[in-house]
Specification:
With 169 residues, the chain is α+β, with helices and mostly antiparallel strands. The protein has two domains: 49 residues, no CATH class; 87 residues. It has four helices and six strands; from the N terminus they run H-H-H-H-E-E-E-E-E-E. Strands 1, 2, 3, 4, 5 and 6 form a six-stranded antiparallel β-sheet that branches. Strand 4 and strand 5 form a beta hairpin. The longest helix has 17 residues. The radius of gyration is 36 Å and the shape is rod-shaped. 15% of the residues are buried.
């Protein structure tokens, strides 16, 4: 008789017992194995139960202040970051190149970015020549964009009069 038929016959219990024995479970028997599994499961599930008083509680005087709280939302550029971005904007607008960008970096904060003019120059109400630009801001893993506008003074320098977070329209 082929081995496949012998395994599937219901009166052939010794074959199943031999498989149980090969797995090393012949000593425990099926009822003992089930009981062991239940006991181990119940003991392990006790690890997920907690008591409110089982853990250490921190009192206000336990805080050292070594880790500073991070304000909610995106951190905005510091005044010194904006000063570096404004200088880069003035430089790139002075060059007057159509498709140029000017990188900037603040060594004190690690912030960096670049400034790129957006469109052709236009005249404002006072007759000054003005131009819009977009500045990138990168500090660590934080990236954002700033939009700005600058106008040329009578002396020929570009004066930044607007620099704020970019809002897509």
């Amino acid at each position: 008789m082929p081995a496949a038929k012998r395994v599937l016959q219901p009166n052939d219990c010794p074959v199943l017992y031999r498989a149980w024995e090969r797995a090393g479970l012949s000593v425990i028997r099926p009822a003992g194995a089930v009981t062991t599994i239940l006991i181990v499961g119940l003991c392990a599930s006790g690890c997920s139960l907690g008591r409110g008083d089982a853990f250490a509680k921190m009192r206000p005087e336990d805080f050292t202040g070594s880790i500073h709280a991070v304000p909610a939302g995106r951190p905005s550029p510091t005044d010194s970051d904006l000063a570096f971005a404004r200088t880069a904007a003035s430089d790139v607008l002075t060059k007057g190149d159509k498709d140029s960008s000017q990188p900037w970096e603040n060594p004190d904060t690690g912030a960096r970015g670049s400034v790129t003019p957006l469109a052709q120059a236009y005249s404002d109400e006072d007759g000054r020549t003005c131009r819009d630009f977009l500045a990138s801001y990168v500090n660590g893993k934080i990236e954002s964009w700033l939009q700005g506008a600058a106008c040329r003074t009578k002396r020929g320098r570009w004066e930044i009069h607007t620099l704020k977070p970019w809002k897509q329209s």
